[in-house]
Amino acid sequence: MIVWVNGTFGAGKSSVCRELVGLLPGSTLFDPEEAGDLLRRVLPARRLAEVADFQDLPAWRRLVPELAAAVAAEVPGPLVVPMSLLREAYRDEIFGALAARGLGVHHFVLHVEETILRRRIDRAVDEPGDPVAAERCRAWRLAHLPAYRAAQSWLHRDALVVDSTYLTPRQAAETLAALVEEGAARCPIVRSNDSGGDTVAAAVLLFDDDDRVLLVDPVYKPDWEFPGGVVERGEAPTLAAVREAAEELGLRLDPAELRLLTVDWEPRVGPRRGGLRLVYDGGRLTAAQRAALRLPPDELRDWRFVTLDESERLLSAGRHRRLAGALAARGAGTPSYLEAGRPAARGAGSLK
């Protein structure tokens, strides 16, 4: 189990988490910033110069769940994590990877009213020690306040907010410990990762009256997706597409009415598995069907209809190429075969 204490820099997360470790039996303090320090030591300077923050390194976002899972296997209790995580896409990526490794996440935001927070940050400069380092820390914390304000729209929706403006670190830790016991802040992400091999997955494209395509926003990954998922053992891909549409959208589709648009071979990239991806045309949704769409909160956050151009900022590059290929096949009336979203070879773009 992970107890992730989020919030802006200077909110007192580290002090509260040190107290919290003493209140949760068998718990261990786990600081993802140490993974950032490791990357700073081992990555070339030119790569580090390309990012403003180590959180922007994909290696850091992969390393944190791996390290957390390894440490959790060595200790008897939960991991207590004091870490600002202000980008929702990074939250999805890291929390999804933790869930895939069997680690549930209790997500808190330690919130301090900004006027009081600024006073705390200013007082920290006056503490004994290195005045240059203290001023650098003060400037860093103040510079990140706008990012925290901007993140509150999703943070305060996703996590359980604990207002610690007038609480001591001990009092805030006691509040968190009680909420962990209640399970009030547990993120309802359910993911399984029972195989390290490549997979077959099926997706279904659904359209509105303007031929915009429906995309969904998973809670366990940074990019948007098509409705769909992995084909289970012994299951026909068409039936998998129908099942996923029912599970993800509450939508009942007739498998006989699905039309294959594209078969795309997806290469393995890092920890993400590859394999064959089948994309079906599920047709246009009526107004009644659109009004009846229901999302499982443990998997999906939102849905919307978008054009191909609009989808480019929501989908990963490979998914966007796959969508473009599927829409082209829909327009041509002929299924196509792709590799990494592109025609594999001259003459290989059609399955006819």
Task: Give a written overview of the molecule.
By secondary structure, the protein is of the alpha/beta class. The chain folds into two domains: 2-182, Rossmann fold, CATH 3.40.50.300; 199-343, Nucleoside Triphosphate Pyrophosphohydrolase. 40% of the residues lie in helices and 20% in strands. It has 13 helices and 13 strands. It has helices at residues 13-21, 33-42, 45-48, 58-72, 88-100, 114-125, 131-143, 145-158, 169-182, 237-249, 287-291, 308-311, 317-332; strands at residues 2-6, 28-29, 79-82, 105-111, 160-163, 199-207, 213-218, 228-230, 259-266, 275-284, 300-306, 336-339, 342-343. It has a six-stranded mixed sheet, sandwiched between helices. Strands 2-3-1-4-5 form a five-stranded parallel sheet, with helices on both faces. A hairpin with a 2-residue loop joins strand 12 and strand 13 (342-343). Helix 4 packs parallel to helix 5 (88-100) and helix 6 (114-125) packs antiparallel against helix 7 (131-143). The mean pLDDT is 89.
